[in-house]
Design a protein that fits this description.
By secondary structure, the chain is of the alpha+beta class. The protein contains three helices and five strands; from the N terminus they run βαββαββα. The chain has one domain (2-108): 2-Layer Sandwich (Muramoyl-pentapeptide Carboxypeptidase, domain 2), CATH 3.30.1380. Bound molecules: zinc ion.
Length: 115
């Protein structure tokens, strides 16, 4: 999996990524390769996201969709949704896919985190 090197020279920050994001990048990597794309993480914990973004606490990642047609981008998020289930939100943005593990929803539904 490639890591995007930003214009400022800072790589996507993956330190302290939460365990739940493994499933997300594993699904993305597999599905992206199947569609002929090159898997790349474009943002981890760094960058500027919304104030309460899950990015800052390691529960969200952004992934490249470069080279995919719009229909393949949609297929990618549909496939990832099948892989990841209802505790993850997968959002197709203009130049990336945002994936987060919705911690609040997970705990409301009785999710038990293993530390
Ligand atoms: Zn994001």
């Amino acid at each position: 999996m490639n890591l995007k090197q930003g214009a400022n020279g800072i790589r996507a920050e993956l330190g302290n990524l939460q365990y739940e994001m493994r499933a997300a990048y594993s699904s993305y990597g597999k599905r992206m390769r199947y569609l002929g794309g090159v898997p790349e993480i474009t943002s981890g914990r760094e960058g500027s996201h919304g104030d309460s973004s899950y990015h800052y606490v390691g529960y969200a990642l952004d992934f490249s969709i470069e080279g995919l047609s719009l229909s393949d981008q949609r297929l990618l998020i549909t496939n990832m949704g099948d892989d990841l289930g209802e505790l993850y939100d997968i959002v197709l943005e203009s130049d990336h896919v945002h994936v987060e593990f919705d911690v609040a929803r997970a705990f409301r539904r009785g999710y038990k985190k293993e530390f």
